[in-house]
Design a protein that fits this description.
By secondary structure, this protein is α/β, with parallel strands linked by helices. 45% of the residues lie in helices and 16% in strands. A six-stranded mixed sheet has the order 6-7-8-3-9-10. Mean pLDDT is 82; it is low at 307-315 and 359-366. Bound molecules: adenosine-5'-triphosphate (ATP) and magnesium ion.
């Protein structure tokens, strides 16, 4: 196992219950996750995400296969070893799990009690982690006095104060509105990147998939590869488009992917880029809002995975009008956040070259 591999799963299966009530919920799961990697775990309700997370987090004993976490084999491990592993993991749950009788500062400090940190150092660590999550001014407040997003931030501070090598987050945004959810995920991402932690984040929220380095998908306890998920999604999308206008399907699919690629040039898809994509897609295709959202999600996943899969099977015919609109739209996405960077211009040129399009007169506005 390479030095930076924090989590290595092989043939992991798991069942609840015994005898006639026994029910297998995980089947031969395998993956490896390195330090600094952010992995999003998705899948329908009941597919086994939380079960898998609790196995990795040493919160439940492994039954079959190999679960290696921070160099320890958890299969048949003694309680002492499980506890040792647990102390090196930061857990973030759907509900923040703060103790309501303690202040924010005390809640965070509690996580340090077990780590043998000295008094003076503890104070500094609590203050600095609260500053990192933007809660310095709220240190002496009780959880009841905070908003949902602030409580979740306090939960993150508590999970990260020990600088864990692994962060496990189970639907940390479920109780938050869209904006607060996005902020929380970006915060986890930022902190994890700074600390080089390995992160597994369970979510149902497709809008935050772009934060991930890798997306793992579970269905009925079986792990599916990203390309399986994307190709299923892509064919679903093409069927959807076919319904509306068979001739436009290829064009629109390519178009949406190209927009997502420009939005993704800087490694994240911003809200304004998302809004601009939605606007353009609504304008071009006579689709419902839900269908546009679906296409956008798939395009973003594809944009993320494009290094690994060939998405150039579709090569629509570009007439002059389409060429101009296509390139103008790419520029509009690049411009969505207020500035067009040279990286975005290079990506536009690359896409244009891939489709054999020459760039017309500079379509950039303002
Ligand atoms: N303690 C338990 N005892 C028996 N069955 C359980 C237990 N916990 C979960 N299960 C079952 O195991 C399966 C997987 O559950 P799990 O909680 O891992 O799913 P999940 O993917 O996290 O779902 P959700 O998205 O709804 O949180 C489900 O069929 C669930 O009913
Ligand atoms: Mg769950």
């Amino acid at each position: 196992m390479g030095a930076s591999v924090r989590i290595a799963l092989e043939d992991v299966s798991y069942s609840y219950g015994r005898g006639a009530l026994r029910k297998q919920v995980l089947f031969d799961i395998a993956t490896r996750i390195e330090g600094g990697e952010i992995v999003i775990l998705t899948g329908p309700s009941g597919s086994g995400k939380t079960t898998l997370l609790t196995l990795i987090g040493a919160l439940r004993s492994a039954q079959e296969g190999s679960v290696r976490v921070l160099g320890h084999e958890l299969l048949n491990a003694r309680t002492k070893a499980l506890i040792k592993v647990r102390r090196q993991i930061g857990y973030i749950f759907q509900s923040h799990n703060l103790l309501s009788s303690l202040t924010v500062g005390q809640n965070v400090r509690m996580a340090l009690q077990l780590s043998g940190t000295r008094h003076r150092e503890k104070k500094g660590r609590v203050a600095s982690v609260l500053e990192r999550v933007g809660l310095s001014e709220h240190e002496h407040k009780f959880p009841d006095q905070l908003s949902g997003g602030q409580k979740q931030r306090a939960g993150i501070a508590r999970a990260l104060v020990n600088r864990p090598q692994i962060v496990l987050a189970d639907e940390p945004t479920a109780s938050l509105d869209k904006k607060a959810g996005r902020d929380v995920v970006e915060l986890i991402e930022e902190l994890a990147r700074e600390d080089g932690s390995a992160v597994i984040l369970v979510t149902h929220d497709n809008r935050i998939l772009d934060v991930a380095d890798r997306i793992l998908h579970i269905e009925d306890g079986h792990m599916k590869s990203m390309s399986e998920v994307v190709s299923e999604g892509t064919s679903r999308m093409l069927n959807l488009l076919e319904k509306h206008d068979p001739n436009a399907a290829n064009y629109l699919a390519t178009f949406a992917f190209a927009l997502a690629r420009i939005a993704y040039v800087d490694g994240v898809i911003h809200e304004d880029e998302r809004a601009e994509m939605r606007r353009i897609l609504m304008e071009v295709a006579l689709l419902t809002e839900a269908e546009v959202d679906f296409i956008m999600e798939m395009s973003m996943m594809q944009g993320r995975a494009r290094a690994r899969i060939d998405n150039r099977i579709v090569n629509p015919a570009f007439d002059e009008e389409r060429t101009e609109h296509f390139l103008a739209s790419l520029h509009a996405i690049a411009q969505a956040d207020g500035i067009t960077t040279s990286e975005e211009l290079i990506e536009i040129d690359t896409i244009a070259a891939e489709f054999g399009l020459t760039r017309p007169r500079d379509p950039r506005m303002n």
